[in-house]
Amino acid sequence: MSVLEGPSVRLRPLVPADYPTVFGWYNDPEVVAPYDRFSVDTLDSFVASVESAAADPASLAPRFVLERRETPGPIGFVGHYVAHPVLEYVDVWYVLGDRAARGKGYGREAVGLLVGHVFATTSVDRVGATCDVENVPSYRLVEGLGFRREGTLRSALFHHGRWHDIYVYGVTRKEWSERSRPG
Ligand SMILES: CC(C)(COP(=O)(O)OP(=O)(O)OC[C@H]1O[C@@H](n2cnc3c(N)ncnc32)[C@H](O)[C@@H]1OP(=O)(O)O)[C@@H](O)C(=O)NCCC(=O)NCCS
Question: What domain count does the chain have?
């Protein structure tokens, strides 16, 4: 699988040495799920899902770790998945596990690399993202990449004891290529 290089960050496939750190974040509701549903995983099932993800476009497993180019070592993880059984698009998701690394632009740069990778390696015409309407960093991240807010799913996700509304974002291949074009 590819290694994706940006100016400040790199996305690379997970290796076994990453599993304890990434699993720790993945299994920490304070890191991954202030605005999301959370269920406890086991290390064995986590590793099995990571190692089988390449063969499964719908896998929700992390596909890359995110690290700073200057100081290698995971600071987060990202994924992409075929999000609907009939409709043909891919959703991206993203977590900065190292909370001290948040708010510095690494998340947006990483998701930009990921979106470019999805368009380069699949035939989809739309990449999407969804987030809780209260997850300001998440929707600002994708808005800064040119995603458009396409709508709101009302009461679509139950977490933290109540139903939450979810924003739906998307960017088309044409929009992405025009955004990426120099000048
Ligand atoms: C969402 C997340 C990946 C953002 O990563 P990040 O590296 O901190 O984001 P960036 O530094 O690239 O900033 C992206 C945008 O969010 C804004 N932002 C970052 N932290 C913020 C905060 N605490 N409050 C409000 N806005 C914030 C930034 O200002 C920027 O927007 P702007 O350029 O329009 O001002 C990170 O907050 C995270 O891991 N959250 C927990 C997991 C999660 O919710 N993932 C998304 C699930 S849908």
Answer: 1
Type of residue at 61: A
Binding pocket residue ranges, ligand 1, CB within 6 Å: 32, 35-36, 93-96, 102-108, 131, 135-138, 140-141, 144
pLDDT surpasses 80 at 182: no
Q: What are phi and psi of 11, to 5 degrees?
A: -110, 130
Range of the domain at 162: 4-180
Q: Atom 26 (ligand 1): residue with closest C-alpha?
A: 137
* CATH code where residue 51 lies: 3.40.630.30
Q: pLDDT, tens digit, for every residue of 119-169?
A: 999 999 999 999 999 999 999 999 999 999 999 999 999 999 999 999 999
Q: What is the largest CA-CA distance in the chain?
A: 48
Q: What is the pLDDT of residues 61-70, one digit of tens each?
A: 999 999 999 9
- Closest atom, ligand 1, to C-alpha of 104: 11
pLDDT band of residue 37 (cuts 50, 70, 90) is confident
**Six token digits for residue 13:** 């496939």
Rounded Cα–Cα distance for residues 156 and 74 (Å):
31
Which of 96, 111, 135, 168 for a ligand 1 pocket mutation test, highest count of atoms within 8 Å of Cβ?
96
